[in-house]
Design brief:
By secondary structure, the chain is an alpha/beta fold. The protein has one domain: Alkaline Phosphatase, subunit A (3-Layer(aba) Sandwich), CATH 3.40.720. Helix content is 33%, strand content 15%. The chain has an eight-stranded mixed sheet, sandwiched between helices. The protein has a four-stranded antiparallel sheet with strand order 14-15-16-17, with helices on one face. Strand 15 and strand 16 form a beta hairpin. The protein is globular and about 65 Å long. It starts with 11 loop residues before the first strand and ends in a 12-residue tail after the last helix.
Length: 487
């Protein structure tokens, strides 16, 4: 289906992205505990997409898809050791070619600042470790042990971390940049719209929140994880294998678990504070009414639910993300059930800054602006995973109320999210639902050939393993749960 985006008034774009924020952790998505008043304001003044997904529930591949509007399998950024290098042009490159300013502040998780990543300037960028990333994620011929797992449970509670200090600097630099942009606009009648990509790391672990925000959520009062009892945890073989590899939960006590969840909620409120700073900076600079704001996250966080921590699986807590857009031409106070993806940010940014843009045949991306105004694309959205802990590719799609995950060579999972929103009744092996699974499989094959994609991922990753010196060299690479800050 071809869709031509109607022309709109061009505006600036403030693109705010955080890291590891599940949409279930926000009050605007129904969380009754977490306080995020500034993000709530964006929802009141704009549109909130209730079914937004990441193209891959892991940082590095997702950020490549975000940059280009293409799925992971289209560009070959399979894992945490195969980062974006700017060679596939994205929305930033297109805007630079047309003379627009495109600035990033904070985390990018691309290969290197030496690459042409589609930005006029990268302020305090965080890229992958030593331009390589995390080679352990390439080793998928068997389930290896992950020595870094105990660290998450050991670092929970109140205080400051390198990441909270980094986020404070990102907020300050973003506000400074906005103030300067306001002055430049006052001095020029022909200034072109700009994009500021403000990329925070909260609420990504370490689960350490500044005291003020940690105190908002007394550990004894926070909720316990969903389906946490051993008998309630998933029995699917690939999910169980992921739990063995990412064995974070083995190291949590109930006390540290509660502290970790309290700190995560505190980090969500800490991030919300920075969102408020950026909104105020736009208002003070006289730019609020001429700027569209996109707020989202790269993926979610399991936070102990089902005995899982981190991301990397296809449950809603991991693969579901917030997606909010506000500003000129965006209906206020609207909640939209049309499924969307981070890949849609590609066409959205171009639409907003240029005023119009044609559908790109290489991407499944559609404009969030169009969808906020009623357009419903006829497509199947995909999320895929080819990184650490999995011995085969994961492919998740939505088909109406149905959520289907195909594991190449393994049993599938199937959930009806209308009847079973907490994904507690897996129908992947139900004889009654054979026809539904067949329909879902046909929909998946409209997007990609999962078996061929899986084979290509393993071939490409073997080449990368060889480039890095072989399996043993990858195993000996530094184990870490989060990328160290730039020097």
């Amino acid at each position: 289906m071809t869709h031509t985006t109607p022309a709109i008034k061009p505006t600036n774009v403030l693109f705010i992205i955080c890291d590891e924020m599940s949409r279930q952790s926000l009050s605007c998505y129904g969380n009754q505990l977490v306080k995020t008043p500034n993000i709530d304001r964006l929802v009141r003044e704009g549109s909130c997409f209730t079914q937004a997904y990441t193209p891959s529930p892991i940082c590095v591949p997702t950020r490549a898809s975000l940059a280009t509007g293409q799925y992971v399998h289209q560009i070959g950024t399979w894992s945490s050791a195969e980062p974006y290098d700017g060679s596939v042009p994205g929305w930033g490159h297109q805007l630079l070619d047309k003379g627009h300013t495109v600035t990033s502040v904070g985390k990018l998780h691309y290969r290197s600042a030496e690459d042409n990543n589609g930005f006029s300037e990268e302020i305090m960028p965080m890229h992958v470790f030593r331009n390589i990333g995390w080679p352990i994620g390439l080793l998928r011929d068997q389930i290896y042990s992950y020595d870094g797992a105990p660290e998450m449970a050991q670092n929970v509670g109140a205080g400051e971390s390198d990441y909270t200090r980094y986020d404070a600097k990102i907020a300050a630099e973003s506000c400074r940049w906005i103030a300067d942009a306001g002055k430049q606009q006052d001095a020029s009648e022909t200034a072109k719209p700009w994009v500021l990509f403000s990329s925070f790391v909260a609420p990504h672990y370490p689960l350490i929140a500044p005291q003020k925000y940690y105190d908002m959520y007394p550990p004894e009062s926070v909720d316990m994880p969903l389906n946490y009892a051993q008998e309630e945890r998933p029995q699917h073989p690939e999910v169980a294998a992921m739990a063995r590899f990412w064995s974070y939960d083995d190291h949590f006590s109930e006390e540290s678990l509660r502290k970790g969840r309290a700190a995560y909620y505190g980090l969500c409120s800490y991030l919300d504070h920075h969102v408020g700073m950026l909104i105020k900076a736009l208002e003070d600079a006289g730019l609020y009414d001429s700027t569209r704001i996109i707020f989202t996250s790269d993926h979610g966080e399991m936070l102990g639910n089902r005995g899982l921590w981190g991301k990397s699986v296809m449950y809603e807590e991991s693969v579901g993300i917030p997606m909010i857009i506000s500003g000129p031409g965006i209906p206020a106070g609207q909640r939209i059930d049309t499924p969307v993806s981070l890949i849609d940010c590609h066409r959205t940014v171009l639409h907003s800054v240029l005023g119009e843009t044609q559908q790109d045949a290489a991407t499944h991306s559609h404009s969030l602006i169009d969808m906020a105004n009623g357009f419903v694309p006829d497509r199947t959205l995909l999320s895929e995973y080819h990184d650490g802990g999995c011995t085969t590719g994961f492919f998740m799609i939505r088909m109406g109320d149905w959520k289907f995950t195909h594991y190449v060579g393994r049993p599938p999972q199937l959930f009806n999210l209308k009847d079973d929103p907490l994904e507690q009744n897996d129908l992947g092996g139900s004889e009654v639902h054979q026809d539904i699974r067949a329909q879902c499989m046909a929909k998946l094959r409209e997007v990609c050939d999962p078996e061929a994609v899986n084979e290509q991922a393993f071939r490409d990753q073997q080449v990368k393993i060889d480039e890095l010196g072989g399996k043993q060299a990858c195993l000996e690479w530094r184990a870490f749960n989060y990328t160290p800050l730039p020097e």
